[in-house]
Design a protein that fits this description.
The complex is a heterodimer. Chain A is mainly α. Chain A contains 15 helices and 6 strands. Chain B is mostly helical. Chain B has a single domain, classed as Formate dehydrogenase/DMSO reductase domain (Formate dehydrogenase/DMSO reductase fold, Up-down Bundle). Chain B has 13 helices and 2 strands. Chain B has a two-stranded antiparallel ribbon with strand order 1-2. The longest helix of chain B has 35 residues. Chain B starts with a helix and ends with a helix. The chains are: A mainly alpha, B mainly alpha. Chains A and B meet through helix 2, helix 3 and helix 14 of A and helix 2, helix 3, helix 4, helix 5 and helix 12 of B.
Chain lengths: 462, 358
């Protein structure tokens, strides 16, 4: 009971947090690109776009920062036994993240936001790049920590405890290298799709005088989007192969594969399935595709969940080592199918750019606006696949999730805190959404020459 | 190994102290912004004195928590589990605070802004209160068993010394915020800030003197206060005196030393314990029985020695860039951002003011 509630709580705050993180990482980078374009060409439209998307970035960072605080505290608050056991390994990258990334990101965001008139142009440009660097570094450290839970490396057991003995191994962990690349690319996809959706709305419904300018941001976002999503899929494929090596249960569950197969096919859909139905009706099976995805070879072998369960019971003692098959199967498919939709939208947009009709193709603009929900669905599905697939382990092979919880917690405490977080997050998510919509629909800020001469308060300030 | 553990204990004390020196005045500004600012422009000016700074300041808290996690996992686990519900409240307060800075100005509606003003004030009192209770409880002692697990209820967290520490920190943060506002505002707001500092000073002084003595009694049998406890008392008396002098910088320096020495006094009182057990002294959590092994501590030391000075350097630079005073005139509505003002209209003085101050 306690474990279930605590897991719901962790999943709830983490999924919410990860709505904002990829937008921040992606949009910080794209905003830095826009400001660089302004710095090099001195053209007003790039400045106006920088400030327009900078405002969206700031709204989003605010909520990412405060929900990030919750993340940092959660481990100790609910998962005390876990923290006590693995703190010396898992805590190290978190502390590095604070020292090397959070300070950088937060301090330079303040400098960027308030420094428009006080810093030389070149220095001010450097501050937004420092913010972007901070977001990218922060993802590196937290992914190193997360990858260690998926595939623990760089430690030895001493007195029943894992003790870090090779910090470098945390950052050469193959799960980290490929997982980190995937998170960065997925963030760029998310940022680009947000920028595309806003630009598309503006081209369709915004003020005529702004349209030339938003055409530029639409083009920039499409040019960033298409390679980013294609590389995300390639990297995701390689990550799948690595996970099949270190967490075979995760990949077997993603195909609802109970028995061992060779070669293995991939089903497009299934009816039924789940942990209690080992013979779902699989629809449209594509031969060899699972072998390719899981092993990168045409005839690769995928060990099924039943033999894995038997093997783990022998290795780790009696227990149920199969994750939630429904989440794995559909998490994988939602992520993959939506990625294909995003590729198609991206290619459509590029084709329209080539035909010079991007600004006037109303169907595309409508689709591109609503497509903004896709990256969020994909990110969530991907993380459910990754984290739920690790269950029942909190650290693969080292500690079970049910043993990680704080012994001092009562059910009432967890229930109260879960309810409190749901309430607070519902309020802040609503505010965030309304403000993002409001500022996405605003006309562009005026060119610098008109406004700044008289007004000392820049548009983006408190 | 012992040196490493001591080094990390000191580093964590430094991080908490740094957090309270910096975020302390942010809390104070949050508490006082409605009193210092009578209208919207003035309140915005008050908030903008910490506008570029508060986010970087709050990271000190994150890093203090993460450093405890990495260097003293047992301390982090026991403390954060014990304070579970209190931390939920703290997080809610910090969320409300962070969002009120960012979102307050994003809608032009008096109700919207008043709501955020109230939230900002309340959360700025609540946050140092909860953290203060938590830090005080480390020294006051909580029911902890031999497996290093908290065994008390939510109400056991209200130890008298802990609560007094919380109240003291709220008052000191308020004073620290008032001296900061005196340093960073102009005109009437400047006068009001100075006036507020004088109003808060007596209560803050009494609290700090009581706190220093109680801290001493809580951890020591000796008669005389130790130097850091004495320093806290001297610093707060100096602050009391300086808020009546026309020296804003010196008053702010005095409240800085007050808040720093108050936090350091707790950690000096603790060492080598990190959490006192009221169940049995044998169950005390110490720096040694909660610390990570030598290798991770060494790695973390290298990282801290490289990055902490860098952080101090660029944060100091930020304070230098935003060193000038903030005037309410910059935020007055007659300077519309959207339309360029025709020549000779009332917006001209605003431009002049800004020009002079830049």
């Amino acid at each position: 009971m306690n474990v279930d509630l605590a897991r719901w709580q962790f999943a709830f705050v983490t999924i919410n947090h990860f709505f904002f993180v990829p937008v921040t990482i992606g949009l910080a980078f794209l905003t830095a690109l826009l400001q660089t374009a302004w710095y090099r060409t001195n053209r007003d439209e790039y400045l106006r776009l920088t400030r327009f998307f900078g405002t969206l970035l700031v709204i989003n960072v605010a909520i990412g920062v405060v929900t990030g605080l919750v993340q940092e505290f959660q481990f100790g608050m609910d998962w005390g036994a876990y923290s006590r056991l693995v703190g010396n390994v898992f805590g190290a990258p978190l502390a590095m993240e604070g020292l090397a990334a959070f300070f950088l990101e937060s301090t330079f965001l303040g400098l960027w936001l308030f420094g428009w008139d006080r810093l030389p142009r070149r220095v001010h440009l450097a501050t937004i790049w420092a913010v972007s660097l901070g977001t990218v570094l922060s993802a590196a450290f937290i992914m190193a920590a997360n990858s260690w839970m998926q595939h623990p490396v760089g430690y030895q057991m001493a007195g029943g405890k894992p003790v870090l003995n090779d910090v470098w191994a945390l950052f050469t962990n193959p799960v980290f290298v490929w997982g980190y690349a995937k998170v960065l690319l997925a963030s760029l996809v998310t940022g680009a799709m947000v920028m595309l959706a806003v630009s598309a709305w503006q081209l369709r419904r915004g003020q005529d005088k702004d349209k030339d300018v938003f055409l530029r941001s639409a083009r920039l976002s499409l040019v960033a989007l298409v390679p980013a999503i294609l590389f995300t899929m390639l990297v995701g494929d390689e990550l799948g192969v690595i996970e099949a090596r270190y967490q075979p249960m995760k990949i077997a569950a993603a195909e609802a594969q109970w028995t061992t197969c060779q070669p293995c096919s991939f089903s497009l859909f299934q009816i039924g399935g789940g942990n209690n139905d080992q013979t779902p009706t699989q629809i449209i099976e594509i031969p060899h595709l699972l072998s390719l995805l899981a092993t990168n070879t045409w005839n690769g072998k995928v060990v099924g969940m039943t033999p894995l369960q038997n093997q783990y019971s022998k290795q780790y003692g009696p227990g149920y080592y199969v994750p939630d098959v429904f989440i794995q199967y559909w998490g994988m498919r939602v992520m993959a199918y939506l990625a294909v939709v995003v590729v198609l939208i991206g290619l459509w947009g590029l084709w329209l750019i080539r035909r010079k009709t991007l600004a006037t193709s109303r169907v595309f603009l409508l689709v591109a606006t609503w497509a903004v929900v896709l990256p969020f669905l994909m990110n969530t599905a991907g993380w459910l696949l990754t984290e739920s697939g690790r269950q029942p382990w909190i650290v693969q092979g080292l500690m079970l999730t049910k043993n990680g919880i704080s012994p001092s917690l009562s059910t009432t405490w967890i229930a109260i805190s879960l309810a409190a977080f749901v309430l607070v997050y519902a309020v802040i998510a609503t505010i965030e959404l309304l403000l993002m919509l409001k500022y996405s629909k605003k006309p562009l800020p005026p060119p610098r020459a008109d406004a700044e001469a008289d007004t000392p308060v820049p548009a983006v300030q408190y | 190994m012992n040196n490493l553990v001591t080094f990390w204990f000191i580093l964590i004390a430094v991080l908490w102290t740094g957090f309270f020196i910096l975020e302390g005045f942010d809390f104070g500004v949050g508490m006082l912004h409605s009193a210092v600012g009578r209208n919207d422009a003035e309140r915005r000016a008050a908030i903008n004195t910490i506008g570029p700074l508060w986010d970087g300041n709050e990271v000190w808290l994150i890093v203090a928590g993460a450093a405890m996690f990495a260097a003293f996992p047992g301390w982090y686990a026991t403390m954060f589990s014990a304070f579970n519900l209190a931390l939920v409240l703290l997080l809610a307060a910090l969320i409300a605070r962070g969002l009120s800075f960012e979102y307050r100005g994003k809608r032009d509606s008096p109700n919207w802004r008043r709501t955020w003003d109230v939230l900002l004030t309340a959360s700025s009192v609540l946050a140092p209160l909860i953290i203060g209770v938590a830090l005080g409880d480390l020294l006051a002692g909580l029911p902890i068993n031999s497996a290093q697990n908290y065994t008390g209820s939510f109400w056991d967290l209200f130890q008298p010394y802990g609560v007094f520490t919380g109240v003291t920190l709220v008052l000191v943060c308020a004073l620290h915020g008032a001296t900061f506002l005196s340093l960073k505002t102009t005109g009437e707001m400047h006068q009001r800030s100075r006036h507020l500092a004088r109003r808060i000073a007596p209560a803050a002084t009494a609290a700090v003197i009581g706190f220093a003595i109680w801290t001493h009694v809580a951890h020591s049998d000796t008669f005389f206060l130790n130097p850091i406890e004495l320093l806290a008392i001297l610093a707060v008396l100096a602050a009391y005196w300086l808020v009546y002098e026309p020296r804003d910088g010196s008053a702010f320096a005095a409240t800085t030393v007050t808040i720093a020495s108050a936090i350091v006094a707790i950690f000096v009182g603790l060492y080598p314990n990190v959490m006192v057990s009221s169940t049995s002294a044998a169950n005390n959590l110490t720096a040694y029985n909660t610390a990570s092994p030598a290798y991770p501590l060494k790695i973390m030391s290298v990282v801290a020695i490289i990055f902490l000075p860098l952080v101090l350097l660029y944060q100091a630079w930020t304070y230098y860039v935003f060193r000038r005073r903030v005037s309410a005139r910059e935020f007055e509505p007659q300077a519309p951002a959207a339309e360029p003002a025709p020549p000779g209209t009332p917006s001209a003085p605003v431009g002049e003011t800004a020009g002079q101050e830049r």
